[in-house]
Amino acid sequence: MGSREVMLVLLCMSSSCLGQAAQGRGSGAETQLISGNGLINLGRRWGSKSPLMHISVNMREITSLKSSFELRTLDPEGVVFYGDTKGGEAWFVLGLRGGVPEMQNGKGNSLSSVAGGPKLNDGKWHKVELHSDGLFVWLELDGTAALMLGLHTNPDSYLTGEMRLSLGGILGSELELMNSLQTEMDGCVRAGNWLNISAPWELGPNEVLHPCFDEIQKGSYFPGTGLALFNSSDFPANQMEDGGAEVKIQGHSLSWSGTVLSLKGSQDEAVLTITANPQTEELIVKFGTQKGSLKLGPHTLYLKLSSHEVQVELGQEQRSNLVDDTHDWVTMWNNGMQLAFGGVPDDSDSKWLEGCLSLIQVQGQDVDLDRALHQDSSISSHSCPFSP
Ligand SMILES: *[C@@H]1O[C@H](CO)[C@@H](O)[C@H](O)[C@H]1NC(C)=O
Ligand SMILES: *[C@@H]1O[C@H](CO)[C@@H](O)[C@H](O)[C@H]1NC(C)=O
User: Fold this and answer.
1) Which residues form the Laminin G domain (predicted)?
2) CA-to-CA distance for 287 and 195, rounded, in angstroms?
């Protein structure tokens, strides 16, 4: 055996070469197939650039250019459905923006986009129907015609070859939408009929299908397995005399368990943690070396961080003021600290939050968890299980 072959054998004993081989050979064995007709949660792995699931079909096998499904979401923005032909040369996207349906399509350099109709992100099931004659795409919502989009293509040239469809994201990460969309979608679809294709869809690599809650209500649901992380400098605090950083969190705190909020510098220990303990019905606030406790209840949690003090209120009656003058915390906040909801980053001793935060506001602005630096994939950013 020559030295080159020896090299090759040695290289192939390393895990990367084995990994490659397994991937190449096992793409059939490892692929998870799921039906397109069932109840599907469109939520996908956080940070993933690819859709939750996709399918490829030969255009010749397509007998119907009609798709219908039911959609339920509280998320204002995200991608529901994507389709393309010729490897992305001509594409179509259906998404929501501000809760309103939006269709975009492109072919080569020509792009078009249309939005309108009722807001769909009300947490109720809506029937959606798309059909195309190759020139136009029509969108019907709950049985009423809502939108139409021209394709501006020579249909014949696009009715051959492969058609790819995907749910919960777009295929081809370089695709430039006409109006860029936050693709993450916290929503569920059911009763899908996708161009009358009966073949199963492929789940994206490393994706798991999350269950859908029976009924939903507004909020962000943390199942106790991870957190959502922001940079505090994205919410600049007022550095004036009686300014500071303000956070407001709504929800029924008696049903919370674990760390609701934490604030820490990049390497340091958390400066501030707010943790709910349902056993003792206490909300424990730690700021530096100081500690305070409030009684959990159906009140809004309000927090104000000023230069050397944090003030935490739970309802009108309860307040805890803790002082730490080792730093100017408002300056630290504005320079960028890790602001986390649902846990403490890189701290194995902390307990992740289990519970629903109905509303999170920082500096008076609603916080959209889909805009986090990082979010654990288990979190439902815009929906909580319904609780009366
Ligand atoms: C849909 O597919 C079924 C078979 O899977 C076929 O019998 C039916 O005619 C198709 N419908 C349309 C409108 O193409
Ligand atoms: C947070 O923002 C600050 C200032 O904008 C920046 O210097 C820092 O790198 C950011 N940190 C992270 C983790 O993105």
Assistant:
1) 41-212
2) 57
- Ligand nearest, relative to CA of residue 68: 1
CATH of the domain at 31: 2.60.120.200
What number does the ligand 1 atom closest to the CA of 196 have?
1
Q: How many CB atoms lie within 10 A of CB 51?
A: 25
How many structural domains does the chain have? 2
Q: Across the 388 residues of the chain, what is the mean pLDDT of every consecutive 10-residue run? A: 36 31 43 94 91 93 92 97 88 95 88 94 98 87 94 61 93 76 94 94 92 97 97 90 90 95 87 96 95 92 95 91 93 96 92 97 95 95 93
For tokens 């500096």, name the residue. Answer: 363
Domain span holding position 108: 3-210
Residue 337: nearest ligand to its CA? 2
Q: Is residue 215 part of a domain?
A: no
Residues 190 and 264 in one domain: no
Q: Compute CA distances 324 → 287, 308, 312, 321, whole Å.
A: 7, 5, 14, 10
Domain C-terminal end among 163, 179, 210 = 210
Q: For the whole prediction, is pTM greater than 0.90?
A: no
Q: Where a domain ends, among 181, 210, 239?
A: 210
Cβ(113)–Cβ(179) under 8 Å? yes
Pick the residue whose CA is nearest to atom 6 on ligand 1: 196
**Of 57, 62, 196, which is best to mutate to test ligand 1, by the most ligand atoms within 8 angstroms of its C-beta?**
196
Question: For residue 264, how far is its CA from the centre of ligand 2 (angstroms)?
Answer: 13
Q: Which atom of ligand 1 sits closest to the CA of residue 63?
A: 14
